[in-house]
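User: I'm curious whether this sequence folds into something compact or stays loose and floppy. Could you predict its structure so I can see for myself?
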Amino acid sequence: MESLRSDGRRLWDSLMAMAKIGATSAGGSCRLALTDEDKAGRDLFVGWCEAAGCSILVDDMGNIFARRPGRRDDLPPIATGSHLDTQPHGGKFDGVYGVLAGLEVVRALNDQGIETEAPIEVVVWTNEEGSRFAPAMVSSGVYAGLFTRDYALSRTDSEGLTLGAELARIGYLGSEICGSHTLGALFEAHIEQGPILERNETTIGVVQGGQGQRWYDLVVLGQDAHSGSTPMAGRRDALVAAAAMTLVVRRVAEAHPPHAVATVGSLSVHPDSRNTIPGEVRFTVDLRHPDDGVLTQMGEAFRAGCQEAAETEGVALDIDEIWHNPPVVFDASCVSAVRQAAEGLGLKHQDIVSGAGHDACQVCRVAPTAMIFVPCAGGLSHNEAESATPEDLKAGCDVLIHAMLAKAGTAA
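Assistant: Here's the prediction. I'll summarize afterward.
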């Protein structure tokens, strides 16, 4: 088995074929969750898996499980996978690499006629990005028992369409109860989405776990007024208050170096008129840290700072914490399997903590889990210019194969 490798060209070609679905003018991909483009990507993946001899199961959150049988199908499967949905201006590799690396594992095993002891499965998790339906990772969250099914299916997009209705519309509302499909272990391959591996000239990141996240929706209410006839001293400008709160968010992260990060990612101004003082601003805040105690302190400081800014500007403020995703530590045995696979393949590797959230960070609460990172150019992701080399992607897939075989075993 030591000589078993992935077909790097086939993996790359599959990635490029998927990237054509929802292709953007700047070279990226736009397949928002449960849009027609997401359906087309799912259909292509399912077709490829069926051609590779896999059976397909879809649960009632739209998660897809493509199964390659093992010698003992009574054993829980050793799984891998990620997501096919993207950001509005997403790249070619975020999520999709983990899915298609899993497909390449199946194809490579087929090429060599290798029968595993336990089944192998490739998973597509629904709505990982959260860019259309918040919060992110909601379907893997239901799988892990972090959200209820009713809550997840009731999430709405900006047009008021629900996640459940859109799942049904595109034909991926399955009958299997989400969470009832047991996994023996889960490995997720992913681009790093950060600069550490590239800076260290390291091919493989052995991911130890993921940092925690707190997401907030904020509404600032001031008073609409004429921009020309309202004196500065009498204004209740919601946008000025929101700008001060944005600086609070930045200061909170800067107060907890080096790991803390904080972002205002979406902001809408009403009535959105050139000559009217804004009376309402809605915006989002994303706080992250690998220590949940520090993350809690960040949340408290953020709330206090925003409330002070609201009082200074004479506006009302509502802060709604829509999601708390605590930091996670991955399964020691699965992490060891990744490290040993990298060592056996002679690949330079290092331990790393994920700065981004991933489906694996949800599933690890109910199944042994680990992740494999490969570098991406400049650490850039959630961007159409996102880039990774065929060589690094193949190396990550080779590690994935051997880590999964270590858990699945091979039939005598």
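Summary: Residues 227 and 276 are 5 Å apart (CA to CA). The chain has a mean pLDDT of 97.
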